[in-house]
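Request: Have a read of the protein record below and say how the chain folds.
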Amino acid sequence: MGEMSSRLLSDTAVPVVLSLAQLSHAGGRQVNQDSWGSAQQDDLTCIIVSDGVGGEYGGEIASNVVVHSIMEVFVEEASFGPRALQSYVDHAVAQLYRRQAQIPRLKDMSATVATLLIDQKNRCALWAHMGDTRIYQFRRGQLLNYTKDHSLIQQFVDAGHCSPDQLRRHPRRSILCAAAGVEGSGPAEVMQNAIQIQDGDAFLICTDGFWEWISEAEMVRAATQAGSAQDWLTIMHTVVEQNGRASSVPLDNCTAFTIYVGNP
């Protein structure tokens, strides 16, 4: 009887609740070329952040195409798994190539992408990314996982030619090895095994205009002070602005999403 009741309980598990907060602004630039979006179907949630590259609104269009293409196909075919996630990103890349072919002046536009897929009923998550838009996962005040940039400087760090702090400071830190819309780009990196999530887990998805100005230690410190996804984002953004103002470097577009899982 004990086995049957535990099985029934798991089969009718209450989906975990998510709370989200988001911000996006142009920073010191004329135009904000970042885009973001989230969609929910049944007990699945998909959250996307994209950082556009390309002059005269090209980057803005590229990031918009990426985000809306992923949301569109997710809403139509909502499914959880690495193959589904790969298909969402592949669809976005194909749509971007199509738009480049239709409008010759946009042929050089491209965009990063970071997509987080959460199965709320089964309490698990997957993510995919291209470029240097990052996904972080925190648990109990500790950094648990984060994506590794597809960038020239990350390759230098991996090869031992640069120290990790150069990811935030090197003059060539924005040169990417993978991005949607770049011919010959490396492929999207898609997590192949879902990770279990717990109440109290927290995710941050952000463009380089955000993470460049806040260290992982500062992210953790902000998480321990915050009582909600919005609190956490607000505290981190204050740090980003303070660190950015203290620098002589012009600030980039800045976009971030925070997600709290269940009851913190």
Q: What stands out?
A: The CA atoms of residues 80 and 115 lie 12 Å apart. The chain has one domain: 16-261. The mean pLDDT is 90.
